[in-house]
Amino acid sequence: MSDTAKSAVTFDGRFAREFAELAIPWRAEDAPDPQLLVLNEPLAADLGLDPAFLRSHEGLLLLIGNAVPAEATPVAQAYAGHQFGWYAPRLGDGRALLLGEIAHADGQLRDIHLKGSGRTPFARGGDGWAVVGPMLREYLVSEAMHALGIPTTRSLAVVATGRQVQRETLLPGAVLTRVASSHLRIGSFQYARATGNVALLRRLADHAITRHYPAAAEGENPYAVLFQAVVAAQASLVARWMLVGFVHGVMNTDNMAISGETIDYGPCAFMEAFDPAAVYSSIDEGGRYAYRNQPLVAEWNLARLAESLLPLLHDDEEKAVEFAVESLGGFRRQYSAAWSAGMSAKLGLQDGSDDDVASGLVDEILALLQAGHVDYTSFFRRLGRAARGQIEPARSMFPEPSGFDGWVQRWRALDPDADAMDRVNPAYIPRNHLVEEALDAATADDLAPFERLLDAVTTPFAERPGLERYAAAAPEDFGTYRTFCGT
Ligand code: AMP
Ligand code: MG
After folding, report:
1. Which pLDDT belongs to residue 4?
2. Per the residue annotation, which of 46, 93, 206, 254 is the catalytic one?
């Protein structure tokens, strides 16, 4: 048996087959000289793919869509979206392709998707390419999020194409091979709704139910249950982002997945000094997607989903609207409950602690962190040591510790659980200065810093000697961090 036969992959091609209206069959551009930069071997194994095969030339060609099995139908997916509040009726995969679906070890299908595979009919003014830095960035941050236990698309590989791509300078091109529960976005439903074809909208909703919320099919109105399930998934997801200090950066409706996975890592960043107004993206001038706005934006985006689903929610439009408004009202309640529970866990407070006392302590410590420009991640990690009686590492982070001194006594009186804190407060996150350092080196052909950082952030809760610099805040001269969307 040849290597290829032994490692043959069967793509289901379900989306391509069932949604011709939303999928344009397309081919990835051939790469002049593909070289593997990083491969996610455990994920490959979960997908039934042989890592040794993927590392072979044939395997690389599969990873970038240059040699796909005969039955596969790569497609560019159509979607619409509100970008910074403005509706764009036709976005779609301008430089991406869905190769097809394959079965994961957990029994569910996963999309295998390419980013940076060349222009498609949705490319508009874009060149269709992606470059090494931003693709490794998505790989790193998505795998860090996964390790933090936060729902996210995954990254299977980044392959350098050997093509030079024009950005501000010439940069090495790359393709990211992404794995997701699906690529159904709020924007997919906006697009389907805008066609005026309610049967298509219904089929898309049925597809979402089958893939993500099968229990909804049992409901009296499955589409109502679907909407409520997406609201719940997003409330939980955004609470998780807030708890780790993650700023997505471009929460347009085309970048919000129906599955509740974090998707489309562009100008995202982890907050360092606690600042509710933190915004990193150079294009987000008004701070629409600032840290503190993320729950509000998610709710706004879900309202756009509700509008798209209206014809399915009830025959009577007034009743449909009434139902949508009521369900959307669940978002704030669910978000607040998830966030408060998460904050209590970060403080090591045991179940049964008084909620008012806990929320008072949370509000107070966040105000102190903000006033003192204290590093959010390090503070909570060091607070675990404070729970064990070693107060100074956390205390020394405050320029003026008197507020903390009063707070810490009241907090310790509640007998916080230090071990439980260490399981939810990461020691290592992809800090912006470390990410930049790793990507700069990788762009100049040195992958070692990237590999070391990936190792740290994919085991985020286990503090290890020798990794101190990965737990430390950025040096003062790192300045105000900006991320760029020109990915
Ligand atoms: P994003 O901000 O990455 O979510 O992308 C928004 C839209 O722009 C999507 O329709 C992308 O497919 C498209 N896009 C982004 N970069 C490019 C590019 N270099 N070439 C073609 N389309 C692109
Ligand atoms: Mg996008």
Report:
1. 46
2. 254
